[in-house]
């Protein structure tokens, strides 16, 4: 079982040599030459300095298409017509599964037709030089966004290719993204990725790392997401990562979202070492969207308002076409502009919302209980602790497809639309906190005249796409 | 006797919430559900259909790679000598497609029914009852018996 220890330099080298042969582009990776490429980039393309020196939330979309020229055009459009402050390159799902042959077929099919056969940019297949063409062509820093449990080769190729930010982590890219990978395996693989980022940092090239906060994207209780961010932050810091952006996905209740973002920032500062610069990212709603662009823009706008009040360092925007697959570039840019409009109109207002402090205390108390349980499970070693805590169910994530999590926790919204838990499984949450959840959910159940059941969860999952926040049923529908 | 249906997300796709809700709805409607979960290969669908003597295979895909993932699926089903009803549902193409074209394409590939991502579970259940020639009452009775 892996321990939370820094990988030796020779071990990093040995593993990297083995990975080079997984796909032919791995052989193009040359660390010294990569450092030189990064050093040649102007300040405006350096991810961590741009993000960490910003005085307002920076906006970043998601975007990835299979072919290089089309990816350049798409990102340039989002930069110019959307006003993106930071750019992404979203990687296709075959690459995420290390299925480079299938990605190659999809890339070939996309080159030969007007239709895209991949849902993202297959960076490993493109190789180091194509990544650099992309970085050279744009004026804004670019992050690799994906969902890859074993992202070692992807990191080698894209970091050598000039990207300076890399999303993901051993829990956040395992639990929501796989069925069969163990946490032992993904922690080991991500120690390599983080150590590689650390190796760049040692040479003065700070690579920003961003654990994926939204997890399964569906009614995730804030404390669970924050605990995962802290664990991944600690693991990354051990390997020498110096710039960490911790994430959180909007649940749609403004008070709970603001409280969660504040708790995330505060606990990040508290738990992570002083030599790490901690920033936060807010993801606009990650669940099902309304099948109507006008209503979808409303969901996006609420994200903008929330961001203006909570002031995260970065906002990942959604597009009004979210309900149906990869958006057009116009819709993607529209999501950026809608968010910008709402943030800019709201951010200078002094908006006082009742209940944020109390909600933040509850989130912090719950997160600490989970972190204490992880600490106990690993006798002080966070890698072993998180593996054992997921085994015992003391840590858990709702709707987890991975065998590595029990998936016993079931969330539902309370009468205010805040996300609570009605099934805790073996989650390490003290009784007094459970009672708060039970009381709040009990109130909703009573108001709707029905029992807390899976049906309530299913109704809440559909609620926003159906036009509401809370999936209400029963006699109080009308009021 | 309850009718067995196989459920799973095909290919490299990890979108789990939809099939979780579908599983609950199908079980509540009296079906025996074998949920293969996310990232299920064609071979796993066929093996499960064979070993559970299933009458229907429900394929989910949200990430846009359904066409490549489902290529040759019905040949495989035929080769295994299976006589099952097949449905596919979700966001089946990468971009902003016209759903009627997508439906036609997947019908040509051999799927009996093709659903978009907005489909309510009850719609799929009603379709299953019709295609498996079950009356609602039979399904209800099956739930009580099981």
Automatic annotation (TrEMBL), chain A:
The keyword Transferase does not apply. L-glutamate binds at residues 62, 96, 145-146, 167, 173, 177. GO terms for molecular function: cobalamin binding; methylaspartate mutase activity. This is Glutamate mutase epsilon subunit. Pathway: Amino-acid degradation; L-glutamate degradation via mesaconate pathway; acetate and pyruvate from L-glutamate: step 1/4. The gene is glmE. Transmembrane segments: none annotated. Belongs to the methylaspartate mutase GlmE subunit family. GO terms for biological process: anaerobic L-glutamate catabolic process; L-glutamate catabolic process via L-citramalate. It catalyses: (2S,3S)-3-methyl-L-aspartate = L-glutamate. Keywords: Cobalamin, Cobalt, Isomerase. Heterotetramer composed of 2 epsilon subunits (GlmE) and 2 sigma subunits (GlmS). GlmE exists as a homodimer and GlmS as a monomer. Adenosylcob(III)alamin binds at residues 64, 119, 176, 289, 318, 322. It comes from the Archaea. Its cofactor is adenosylcob(III)alamin. Catalyzes the carbon skeleton rearrangement of L-glutamate to L-threo-3-methylaspartate ((2S,3S)-3-methylaspartate). InterPro entries: Cbl-dep_enz_cat, Glu_mut_E, Glu_mut_E_C_dom_sf. Its EC number is 5.4.99.1.
From TrEMBL, chain B:
InterPro entries: Cobalamin-bd, Cobalamin-bd_sf, GlmS. GO terms for biological process: anaerobic L-glutamate catabolic process; L-glutamate catabolic process via L-citramalate. It comes from the Archaea. Its EC number is 5.4.99.1. Its cofactor is adenosylcob(III)alamin. The keyword Isomerase applies. Signal peptide: none annotated. Keywords: Cobalamin, Cobalt, Isomerase, Metal-binding. GO terms for molecular function: cobalamin binding; metal ion binding; methylaspartate mutase activity. It holds the Pfam family B12-binding. It catalyses: (2S,3S)-3-methyl-L-aspartate = L-glutamate. Residues 2-135 form the B12-binding domain. Pathway: Amino-acid degradation; L-glutamate degradation via mesaconate pathway; acetate and pyruvate from L-glutamate: step 1/4. The keyword Metal-binding applies. Transmembrane segments: none annotated. Adenosylcob(III)alamin binds at residues 12-16, 60-62, 91-95. Heterotetramer composed of 2 epsilon subunits (GlmE) and 2 sigma subunits (GlmS). GlmE exists as a homodimer and GlmS as a monomer. Catalyzes the carbon skeleton rearrangement of L-glutamate to L-threo-3-methylaspartate ((2S,3S)-3-methylaspartate). Belongs to the methylaspartate mutase GlmS subunit family. Belongs to the methylamine corrinoid protein family. This is Glutamate mutase sigma subunit. It comes from Halomicrobium mukohataei (strain ATCC 700874 / DSM 12286 / JCM 9738 / NCIMB 13541). The lineage of its organism: Archaea, Methanobacteriati, Methanobacteriota, Stenosarchaea group, Halobacteria.
């Amino acid at each position: 079982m892996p321990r939370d220890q820094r990988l030796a330099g020779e071990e990093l080298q040995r593993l990297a040599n083995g990975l080079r042969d997984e796909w032919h582009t791995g052989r193009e990776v040359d660390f010294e030459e990569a450092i030189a490429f990064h050093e040649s980039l102007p300040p405006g393309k350096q991810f961590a300095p741009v993000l960490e020196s910003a005085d307002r939330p920076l906006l970043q979309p998601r975007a990835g298409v299979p072919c290089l020229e089309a990816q350049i055009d798409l990102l340039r459009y989002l930069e110019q017509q959307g006003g993106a402050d930071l750019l992404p390159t979203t990687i296709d799902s075959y690459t995420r599964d290390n299925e480079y042959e299938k990605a190659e077929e999809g890339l070939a099919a996309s080159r030969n037709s007007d239709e895209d056969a991949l849902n993202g940019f297959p960076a490993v297949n493109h190789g180091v030089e194509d990544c650099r063409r992309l970085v050279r062509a744009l004026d804004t820093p670019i992050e690799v966004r994906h969902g890859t449990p074993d992202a070692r080769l992807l990191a080698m190729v894209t970091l050598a290719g000039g990207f300076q930010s890399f999303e993901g982590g051993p829990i956040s890219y395992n639990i929501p993204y796989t069925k069969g990978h163990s946490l032992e395996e993904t922690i080991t693989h991500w120690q390599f990725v983080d150590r590689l980022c650390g190796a760049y940092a040692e040479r003065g090239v700070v690579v920003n790392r961003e654990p994926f906060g939204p997890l399964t994207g569906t009614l995730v209780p804030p404390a669970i997401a924050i605990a995962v961010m802290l664990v991944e932050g600690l693991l990354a810091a051990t390997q020498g990562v110096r710039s960490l952006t911790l994430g959180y996905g909007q649940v749609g209740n403004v008070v709970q979202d603001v409280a969660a973002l504040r708790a995330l920032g505060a606990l990040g500062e508290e738990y992570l070492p002083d030599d790490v610069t901690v920033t936060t990212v807010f993801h606009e709603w990650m669940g099902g969207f309304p099948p109507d662009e006008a209503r979808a823009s409303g969901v996006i706008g609420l994200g903008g308002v929330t961001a203006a009040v909570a002031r995260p360092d970065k906002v990942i925007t959604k597009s009004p076409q979210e309900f149906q697959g990869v958006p057009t570039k116009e819709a993607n840019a529209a999501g950026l502009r809608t968010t910008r409009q709402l943030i800019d109109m709201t951010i200078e207002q002094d908006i006082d919302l009742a209940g944020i402090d109390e909600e933040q205390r509850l989130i912090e108390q719950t997160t600490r209980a989970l972190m204490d349980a992880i600490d106990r499970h690993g006798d002080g070693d966070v890698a072993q602790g998180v593996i054992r805590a997921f085994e015992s169910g003391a840590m858990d994530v709702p709707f987890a497809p991975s065998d590595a999590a029990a998936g016993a926790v079931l969330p539902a919204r309370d009468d205010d639309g805040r996300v609570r838990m009605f099934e805790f499984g073996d989650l390490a949450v003290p009784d007094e906190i459970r009672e708060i959840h039970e009381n709040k959910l009990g109130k909703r159940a009573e108001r709707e005249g029905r029992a807390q059941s899976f049906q309530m969860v299913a109704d809440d999952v559909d609620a926003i796409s159906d036009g509401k926040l809370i999936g209400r049923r029963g006699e109080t529908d009308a009021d | 006797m309850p009718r067995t249906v196989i459920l799973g997300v095909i290919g490299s796709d990890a979108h789990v919430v939809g099939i979780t809700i579908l599983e609950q709805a199908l079980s509540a409607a009296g079906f025996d559900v074998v949920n293969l979960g996310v990232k299920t290969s064609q071979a796993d669908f066929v093996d499960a259909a064979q070993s559970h003597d299933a009458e229907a295979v429900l394929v989910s895909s949200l990430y846009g790679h359904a066409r490549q993932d489902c290529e040759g699926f019905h040949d495989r089903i035929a080769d295994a000598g299976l006589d099952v009803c097949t449905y596919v549902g979700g966001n089946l193409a990468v971009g902003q497609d016209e759903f009627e074209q997508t439906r036609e394409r997947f019908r040509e590939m051999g799927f009996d029914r093709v659903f978009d991502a907005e489909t309510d579970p009850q719609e799929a259940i009603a379709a299953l009852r019709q295609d498996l020639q079950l009356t609602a009452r039979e399904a209800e009775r099956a739930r009580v018996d099981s």
